[in-house]
Amino acid sequence: MGFPRLWAALLRAWGRWTACPGPRVPGLPPMAANKVPPALASHQPDRKVRGGWVWEETQHPPKRIKGGEDEEAPRKLPKRKIVLLMAYSGKGYHGMQGVSAAGQVVSLKVWLIDDILDKINSHLPSNIRILGLKRVTGGFNSKNKCDARTYCYMLPTFAFAHKDRDVQDESYRLSAETLQQVNRLLACYKGTHNFHNFTSQKGPKEPSARRYILEMYCEEPFVREGLEFAVIKVKGQSFMMHQIRKMVGLVVAIVKGYAPESVLERSWGEEKVDVPKAPGLGLVLERVHFEKYNQRFGSDGLHEPLDWAQEEGKVAAFKEQHIYPTIVSTERDERSMAQWLSTLPIHNFNATARGAAGTGAKVPSSLEGSEGDGDTD
């Protein structure tokens, strides 16, 4: 299921209740022309199905005669610029960046009808939800006005077990010392670095390879269905394709003992370093930040700040009902993390990526997963 599914729901919701006014119905005021009682249903234009879409054929209103009683034409409701807070499970939805999302934000112009969120959601499956709506300025663009994004990456904690331990030991529990080591390494990513080794088709001299990371850390572990998981969170101004998965993958390789800590510093240099890419299963878009917009318009008395504080409960509930269970069940069924961990020994962290490629070692294509975090320039 792709992005058109969402737009189909939007069009059905607004097209059904707020379509452009058709011909006047005798006895009804102009604005009621679209809300025809059943008794007057015969006056409604025919509805036809074409290519899976429902179209309503409209007739041209009769010509107005100057001075006649039909001179007044029905007014068209104005559209307003809004943003929608979306959540979806990436397991069956590939419309935006190929990952799950608990706080995606899109901007568009709509007719603000009654119960608009309920009407949109009535046309969507349960694993795609519109959680909130806010009015924004007329020139607002959710992609261009974004200051930063926060992603989380959920993974089984046996990923941090030493390489001498069983690759998938479900009894493994993350110790406080190992968690401290993980957070120390993740904190090294903070600041501006050259991440050309953490994506594809970017050279070390390209300015766009330099990215700014505000924070990155691992939260306390928790147990689901007998298996312990942890969530890594990272906030940055923007990310390139595969960047987060490679940031996680390199830290896992260091903690397990496959790579020295010095490879972190070396990966930000001009040398081409072989950086492993963690599976895409656990990657979730957590939040989109609009801090500059909030500073300028959030307290002007006309617009709300885009902080979604009132929707936090809905976001948390969606993650618990749809995102986390999908990650847990898929990990158990497909063992994507365990299979990926078994490929770490073939990486040569002391050689360049070209040197490692010359050995013929290759990660199976089935482990590639989704694209993960896309380039959000």
TrEMBL record:
Chain spans, region Disordered: 356-377
Highest taxon in the source lineage: Eukaryota
Family: Belongs to the tRNA pseudouridine synthase TruA family.
Domain named Pseudouridine synthase I TruA alpha/beta: residues: 189-291
Name of the protein in its database record: tRNA pseudouridine synthase A isoform X3
N-terminal signal peptide: 1-19
InterPro entries assigned to the protein according to its UniProt record, in alphabetical order: PsdUridine_synth_cat_dom_sf (IPR020103), PsdUridine_synth_TruA (IPR001406), PsdUridine_synth_TruA_a/b_dom (IPR020097), PsdUridine_synth_TruA_C (IPR020095), PUS1/PUS2-like (IPR041708), TruA/RsuA/RluB/E/F_N (IPR020094)
Lineage: Eukaryota, Metazoa, Chordata, Craniata, Vertebrata
Record key words, sorted: Isomerase, Signal, tRNA processing
Membrane-spanning ranges: none
Species for this entry: Mesocricetus auratus (Golden hamster)
UniProt key word Transferase: no
Keyword Signal: yes
SUPFAM superfamilies attached to this UniProt entry: Pseudouridine synthase
PANTHER family for the chain: PSEUDOURIDYLATE SYNTHASE, PSEUDOURIDYLATE SYNTHASE 1 HOMOLOG
